[in-house]
Amino acid sequence: MSIKKYSALFVFFSILLTSILLTINYVIDPYMIFQSKRLLGFNDKKPAAVNRSSLYKPYNVVNIHPKTIIVGNSRPEMGIDPSSACWPTKNGTVYNLTFPGLGTYKQTQALFHAVSTGQVKNILLGVDFSDFLHKKRKTKKTIWSNYESEFSSRLLVDANFQKNQSYWLNKIRDFSAALFSLSVLNDSIYTLMSQTPNSSDRTYLGFNPAKDYHDIIRYEGTWVLFEQKQSELNKRFSKKGLSIYDAGQWSLELEAIRRIIQLSLDKNIRLTLFINPYHYTYLESIRNAGYWNEFETFKKSLTHVVMQYGDNQVALWDFSLYSDYTVSATPKKGVNIQSFQWFWEPAHYKSDLGEIMLSNMFGENCIKTKTKAVGVKLNAINIDSHLAQQINHRSRSLQELHSSTLTP
């Protein structure tokens, strides 16, 4: 075989293999970056996308053009369904722009990114105590720095709402890697092999349906999820010297909230903030670790920021309460409880509870059965009495729980 013919064959097969690789990765789309058509039993479930929300969600929110976005961490990602019937019709398409493991600063960057598209008219922002609680940062004044990262390179604007000049270059890089990478091919094959009813997944609108939890509960029991998360919480809150403030009455997270409020007012966007609900055992972990005063300060500080800068146009809801929804006996090993009504485990609530939360916040008559209110709308007038009432309600509800567990 001549060198010329060999070279031609080499080029031909190289192009052929590259084309096959490109086609497989594009059609299966394991990371949801291309939003290729999802076919049941073929590429419908996206287990490989589970840990890559910081890759595909920034691009998806630009392509989908939602009118409403949900922002926060893994709790609203699992608990607030963008396809819920409890959203007001006027809210249009809703996208779950949530990022497990990313703190308030990066969540704020993602929110700015979505708003910069010019389509967003409503924001539902879930705030979390654990995202605000940290070792005091070494700063003597209020500083809002523009931190660059791989995540921020995928955003249209930076933390100061200035245009990202390298956005398109970074997008080309990410999309090319998702087409031509052999590691992506491995995840494409993994996706093909993981098309079971309870595979890990993310919906087109960014929601985590938590299907993978069903198999854990079925084969091991709900108690496993509770025990594992409780161990993580105890470790998290065992750290000493944590605070929600960095300098004086200032923190990076509270500054982020202030800037989000200001941006919403400037852009005429309806902003609703809410504190995520926790199972009572989560609240007890906070209390037992000695951080209850910090937890109350967190709620007071949020209320103060909303009242000071919100111009009576921003709502703040507290769902992190001792209530009929959050106070219930924890599942035990050997006890045949296949499911738990409102929580997957102490830190993550189910979309069933999320439905009631949405109904409370937006006043929609979307719940088939009559339910009690699950949260309290906070303001400067009721915050102190609300916190005092929670102390009394805790005592009463835990006493009732203890009595019920002793009753044969």
Helix content: 40-55%
* Distance separating the two termini: 87 Å
Kindly report the CATH topology: Rossmann fold
Total domains: 1
- Biggest β-sheet: strands ordered side by side in the sheet: 2-1-3-6-7-10
Q: What is the averaged pLDDT score?
A: 92
Sheet-strand content, in percent, reads 5-15%
Low-confidence parts: none
Structural class by SSE content: alpha/beta
Taken in chain order, the helices and strands follow as HHEHEHEHEHHHHEHEHHEEEHEH
Summed up, the helix count is 14
Biggest pleated sheet: 6 strands, mixed
Can you tell me the CATH class?
A: Alpha Beta
Q: Do you know the CATH architecture?
A: 3-Layer(aba) Sandwich
Count of DSSP strands: 10
Concise summary:
With 408 residues, the chain is α/β, with parallel strands linked by helices. The chain has 14 helices and ten strands.
Which features does this protein show?
globular; 14 helices; alpha/beta; single chain; 10 strands; Rossmann fold
Architecture overview:
- The chain is α/β, with parallel strands linked by helices and 408 residues long.
- The protein has one domain (67-144, 197-406): Rossmann fold (3-Layer(aba) Sandwich), CATH 3.40.50.
- 46% of the residues lie in helices and 9% in strands.
- The chain is built from 14 helices and 10 strands.
- It has helices at 3-28, 53-64, 74-79, 104-115, 129-132, 167-180, 182-192, 211-219, 222-237, 252-266, 280-288, 292-309, 351-362, 383-406, and strands spanning 68-72, 94-98, 122-127, 134-135, 242-243, 270-275, 315-318, 343-345, 348-349, 376-377.
- It has a 6-stranded mixed sheet with strand order 2-1-3-6-7-10. It has a two-stranded antiparallel ribbon with strand order 4-5.
- Helix 4 packs parallel to helix 10 and helix 9 packs parallel to helix 11 (280-288).
- The longest helix has 26 residues, at 3-28.
- The mean pLDDT is 92.
